[in-house]
Amino acid sequence: MIGFGDGQVALLTGAAGTMGLACARMLVDEGYVVAMADIDAARVDALAASLGGNARGFAFDVSDPIAAEAAFAGIETKLGPVAVLVNNAGILSNNKAAETSHAEWRRVMSINLDGAFWLSRLALPGMKARRCGRIVNTCSLAMKSGGLTAGTAYTTSKGALQALTFSLARESAAHGVTVNGVAPAYVRTPMVTEQLDEAQRQALLRQIPVGRFCEPEEFAHCVRFFLSPLSGFVTGEILDLNGGLHFD
Ligand SMILES: NC(=O)c1ccc[n+]([C@@H]2O[C@H](COP(=O)([O-])OP(=O)(O)OC[C@H]3O[C@@H](n4cnc5c(N)ncnc54)[C@H](O)[C@@H]3O)[C@@H](O)[C@H]2O)c1
Q1: Which structural domain, as residue segments, surrounds residue 113?
Q2: Is residue 246, in this structure, part of any structural domain at all?
Q3: Is residue 118 a part of any domain in this protein?
Q4: Ligand 1 test: best mutation among 11, 12, 19, 208, most atoms within 8 Å of CB?
Q5: Residue pLDDT tens, the chain, 248 long
Q6: Residues belonging to the active site
Q7: Is residue 21 part of a domain?
Q8: pTM
Q9: What is the CATH number of the domain that holds 62?
């Protein structure tokens, strides 16, 4: 076995998505046993099978606290204690305030924010007791830019996810647990490759100083940085991954 994962269990949500799959591959490469969680049961099972024996699919809705609790218990029973949690499941909404319905607001918040909270709340007691744990949350440039890349509910959900990251980082630091986030923009996902036409793609590329879209593997590499044993002094950090669009 190679890498620093050393057979520990990593729970990754949104694992059947583009960035999730890249992250799952990285985790397997680093020697983790990966619980790939997603609401899309068929896809996550097929992807887990394609990654070999160290990845297993678990289908549940992260926004449902009862389902999350049952799934978390099942993962720990089948695979062992969760040492790493990557809260990556998320949905995009491009609607600005006036077009955002109550149902849409609740749906975005419940998946992008509540899901990360429920799973962190489940994972933290064991991590603290073992004095060892890593949580990484997938945030977004949207939260730092007043919604440059997304709508109001999405932007707010990711801003709150950053606040959750800081809050959990502070309350966990003395217990050997780090909590960090990655704030990507314009990762080369189907939204960019399929839903935009060539003119829209070129217009976006002109805005990105680095002059290209972000690769999903570059996102996975940011997660890897936070998981490294040498990153134990880094907590409450949000790592920008935006090709120079925004500095802070
Ligand atoms: N693509 C980008 O440029 C970009 C930029 C910034 C942040 N992000 C964030 O990165 C993360 C991954 O995005 P992606 O582009 O890979 O999207 P994606 O749609 O490819 O992947 C998201 C995954 O989450 C799963 N999911 C959705 N709702 C769920 C639920 N209720 N419970 C469990 N799983 C659920 C989906 O089935 C999907 O597989 C998201 O949190 C997104 O907000 C993406």
Answers
A1: 9-187+216-241
A2: no
A3: yes
A4: 19
A5: 469 999 999 999 999 999 999 999 999 999 999 999 999 999 999 999 999 999 999 999 999 999 999 999 999 999 999 999 999 999 999 999 999 999 999 999 999 999 999 999 999 999 999 999 999 999 999 999 999 889 999 999 999 999 999 999 999 999 999 999 999 999 999 877 887 888 888 998 999 999 999 999 999 999 999 999 999 999 999 999 999 999 99
A6: 154
A7: yes
A8: 0.98
A9: 3.40.50.720
110 lines ligand 1 (CB under 6 A): no
| Beta pairing partners, 177 | 133
CB of 44 closer than 6 A to ligand 1? no
Contact 217, 236 (CB under 8 A): no
- Ligand 1 mean position to 138 CA, how many Å? 9
The number of distinct structural domains making up the chain is 1
Residue 74 in any domain: the answer is: yes
CA of 170 to the centre of ligand 1 (A): 26
Q: How many beta carbons lie within 10 A of that of residue 248, not counting itself? A: 7
Q: Does 30 contact ligand 1 (Cβ within 6 A)?
A: no
- Identify whether the C-beta of residue 117 lies closer than 8 Å to the C-beta of residue 171: no
Query: Is the C-beta atom of 186 inside 6 A of ligand 1?
Result: yes
Q: Which residues of 112-131 are buried (b: 16+ CB within 10 A; e: fewer)?
A: bbbbbbbbbebbbebbbeee
Distance CA 228, CA 224 (A): 6
